[in-house]
């Protein structure tokens, strides 16, 4: 089944800039150039809330992982934290000196990272609402910044045509990806945390491995790409473009699956729900649309095995890599056309692979436990040596 339009929300009075689902999919938040943040109820006949407080266009919105807070960034240079209820109360964060283009919660909900036209990326604590530190190496507006799923890295994209990878602890830029020919509008981490995808005004979507810092896939479109979102399974990517279309890319096969026409005028933002069965889009036409994913139904079983830890890093999917932009197209084989024997062999292979993956996971965990123990032992050893030094010094004194 193809993706289908499920709901249609009208209420913004200017271009929609950002959309995000709450954890339980009961609510959808959107930001707009009309300076308002709106929270729509996914239940029909339930009223939408309009949150007023920003003095200028709202550029970005995001629900906290728990869904109890919504963060927004605005052209009024502030970041606001809202409680998504009737009262619409909010607290204001001030530290940027220009438009705030992007807000993103860490997966534990403890920190927020923001990106701004003041060329900096800032990290804040949510509960104390305190500014922690800035990352400043971009030499132009920063359009987007995101935490990695484990919260250890930050990725940012900028009008300086680079995508930068930062270590949150050392606060240093570990790598700059400079392959874009235009501004980089949007960037995000793959759910596995092993690669990133970036969308640009050069009409491309590029995926890089962040461990080897190499280009994995390259999709060439024919219009500026404004936004992208990974399906939670990590197998698909949806993009929003200036040609008014949403495109769904199959990352395992490295090809375009669907082109969806819904918006009149540029599609500005897009986001999958946390479970992946819905996605929402916003456009310059002031409309917010909610789509039923549908295509993950045929992949139900595939998704289950994917979740056990496989990633789009080319390590267990051949034909995913796009060196020099060559697409390896694989055609889907119909089940009916294959003999039962073949299907059985494939099923047992899949099982074996899943088992191996499971074993690998166990090994990875074991290794990390061993590493922790080693660190403890090293610390103890250091302590012993220091004590010995002290004893010797005392004796000589």
List the helices and strands and how they pair.
Blueprint (H helix, E strand, L loop, with lengths): L3 E7 L5 E6 L5 E6 L4 E5 L7 E3 L6 E6 L6 E5 L3 E5 L7 E5 L5 E6 L5 E6 L4 E5 L4 E6 L6 E6 L5 E6 L4 E5 L4 E6 L6 E6 L5 E6 L3 E6 L4 E7 L4 E6 L5 E6 L3 E6 L4 E7 L5 E6 L5 E6 L3 E6 L7 H8 L32 H57 L1
Antiparallel strand pairs: 1-28, 2-3, 3-4, 4-5, 6-7, 7-8, 8-9, 10-11, 11-12, 12-13, 14-15, 15-16, 16-17, 18-19, 19-20, 20-21, 22-23, 23-24, 24-25, 26-27, 27-28
Protein model, in words:
The structure is a single chain. The protein has 397 residues and is of the alpha+beta class. It has two domains: 4-294, Methylamine Dehydrogenase, Chain H; 349-396. Helices cover 16% and strands 41% of the residues. It is built from two helices and 28 strands. Strands 1-28-27-26 form a four-stranded antiparallel β-sheet, with no helix packed on it. It has a four-stranded antiparallel β-sheet with strand order 2-3-4-5, with no helix packed on it. Strands 6-7-8-9 form a four-stranded antiparallel β-sheet, with no helix packed on it. A hairpin with a 3-residue loop joins strand 27 (278-283) and strand 28 (287-292). The radius of gyration is 23 Å and the shape is globular. The protein starts with a strand and ends with a helix.
Sketch the major β-sheet: 4 strands, antiparallel
CATH superfamily of the largest domain: YVTN repeat-like/Quinoprotein amine dehydrogenase
What's the level 1 CATH class of the largest domain? Mainly Beta
What general outline do the C-alpha atoms trace? globular
Pfam family, one: WD40
Region (Disordered): 306-343
Family: Belongs to the WD repeat POC1 family.
Organism: Oxyruncus cristatus
């Amino acid at each position: 089944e193809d993706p289908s339009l499920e709901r249609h929300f009208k209420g913004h009075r200017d271009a929609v800039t950002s959309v995000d689902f709450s954890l339980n999919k009961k609510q959808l938040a959107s930001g707009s150039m009309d300076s308002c943040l709106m929270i729509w109820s996914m239940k029909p006949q339930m009223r939408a809330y309009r949150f007023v407080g920003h003095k200028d266009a709202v550029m970005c919105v995001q629900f906290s992982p728990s869904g109890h807070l919504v963060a927004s960034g605005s052209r009024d240079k502030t970041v606001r934290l809202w409680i998504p209820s009737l009262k619409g109360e909010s607290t204001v964060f001030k530290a940027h000196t220009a438009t705030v283009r992007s807000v993103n919660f860490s997966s534990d909900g403890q920190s927020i990272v923001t990106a701004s036209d003041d060329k900096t990326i800032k990290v804040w604590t949510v509960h104390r609402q305190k500014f922690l530190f800035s990352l400043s190496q971009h030499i132009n507006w920063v359009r987007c910044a995101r935490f990695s799923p484990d919260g250890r890295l930050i990725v940012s994209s900028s009008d300086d045509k680079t995508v930068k990878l930062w270590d949150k602890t050392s606060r240093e830029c570990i790598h700059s990806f400079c392959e874009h020919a235009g501004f980089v509008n949007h960037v995000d981490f793959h759910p596995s945390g092993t690669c990133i995808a970036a969308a640009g005004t050069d009409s491309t979507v590029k995926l890089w491995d962040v461990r080897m810092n190499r280009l994995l896939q390259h999709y060439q479109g024919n219009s500026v790409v404004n936004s992208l979102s990974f399906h939670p399974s990590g197998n698909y990517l949806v993009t929003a473009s200036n040609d008014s279309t949403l495109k769904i890319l199959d990352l395992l096969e490295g090809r375009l699956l669907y082109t969806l026409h819904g918006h009149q005028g540029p599609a500005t933002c897009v986001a999958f729900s946390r479970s992946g069965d819905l996605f929402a889009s916003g456009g310059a036409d002031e409309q917010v649309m909610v789509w039923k994913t549908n295509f993950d139904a045929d992949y139900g079983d595939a998704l289950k095995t994917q979740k056990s830890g496989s990633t789009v890093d080319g390590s267990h999917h051949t034909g995913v890599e796009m060196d020099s932009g060559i697409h390896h197209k694989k055609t889907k084989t119909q089940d009916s056309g294959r003999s039962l024997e073949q299907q059985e062999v494939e099923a047992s292979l899949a099982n074996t692979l899943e088992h191996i993956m499971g074993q690998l996971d166990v090994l990875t965990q074991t290794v990390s436990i061993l590493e922790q123990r080693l660190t403890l032992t090293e610390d103890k050893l250091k302590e012993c040596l220091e004590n010995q030094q002290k004893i010797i010094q005392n004796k000589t004194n």
